[in-house]
Amino acid sequence: MTMPDSSPATLQQIAASLGLHVSTVSRILNASSADSTKAASPRTVERVRQYAKEIGYSPNPMGSGLRTRKTNQVAVLVPRLSDLVLSTIYEGIDEAAAEVGISTFVTNTFDDPQIQNRKLELALSRRVDGIILADSHLDGAIALELRTRKVPYVLVNRRAEGHASVTCDDYLGGRMAAEHLYAQGHRKVGVVAAQPYASTSADRQRGFVDYFREHGIHIPKNMVAQSNFDAESGAEAADQLLRRRPALTAMFAVNDFAAIGAMSTARQHGRVVGTDFAVVGFNDITIARQLSVPLTSVRSDMHGMGRQAVTMLMEVLASKPAESALLAPVLAVRASSDFQLFA
């Protein structure tokens, strides 16, 4: 017999070492004890099992999945797991999946279509049972690819028309932020938005702008500045808005980190957040209430969103119809906007 090297043993190596056909070795090692004698003679079965034990061979779970078409694995695609919102959603996914005996793995796509495609192929090469997309674009391209290939999937956090998703009611959340600022007396407002291909940004912005329009206030396009869901780009977007219209009294940022950046910029422009300038964010991350001027934010159930995505995927895997779910947002009013503006 040839001695095994340090790399993981394979069925092909065992078969070559024992002078047997790989299919025979496979039948022996993957059969139950009761069925093993049907795979080969008792002496051959003993030889194969003994040698496999000596070299530390263990069956490849992916190989098993190829036969049963079930690996009890789910892939989760996110733009960036470093994003606190996405990591919280993933915690909910992983927790709920573990409760039903499923393991998960997560991979970053950085919202880049080429990377999305590469990571998708990587996930599919692992024969996952299904995929949860947290990085879907409004065009639904990656979801459509999965549908075409008959891969079970659901969307979470972001929506795309025609695909089952679990999201916060982002449009309603945007309206709630607008209603609050309008009630506080603000009429000169700006929006720190994000990537237009993300439904989270598009829907929150649209809800906010629609509310003001319905109440006779037009928010021009130049009062909407794009950021990247982080504090630095939120600060830059807020700077653009205040330079364009120094008389602004309030800003709505579609993400809490962007809102934190906007608060910093407002101070640099000589404004006092919570006194003569209001800022409202979205998601209500933990740090929002710990700031020196606590941030008003639209709360989304990030953890629950992840858990519900797993429940929905289980329905898809069971060939049951899945309907999109909108989780209700809640406005948490804090010092950053809790004052009445007197013109």
From TrEMBL:
InterPro entries: HTH_LacI, Lambda_DNA-bd_dom_sf, Peripla_BP/Lac1_sug-bd_dom, Peripla_BP_I. GO terms for molecular function: DNA binding. It comes from the Bacteria. CDD domains: HTH_LacI. It comes from Mycolicibacterium komossense. The lineage of its organism: Bacteria, Bacillati, Actinomycetota, Actinomycetes, Mycobacteriales. Residues 9-68 form the HTH lacI-type domain. Keywords: DNA-binding, Transcription, Transcription regulation. Gene3D superfamilies: 3.40.50.2300, lambda repressor-like DNA-binding domains. Pfam families: LacI (PF00356), Peripla_BP_1 (PF00532). This is LacI family DNA-binding transcriptional regulator.
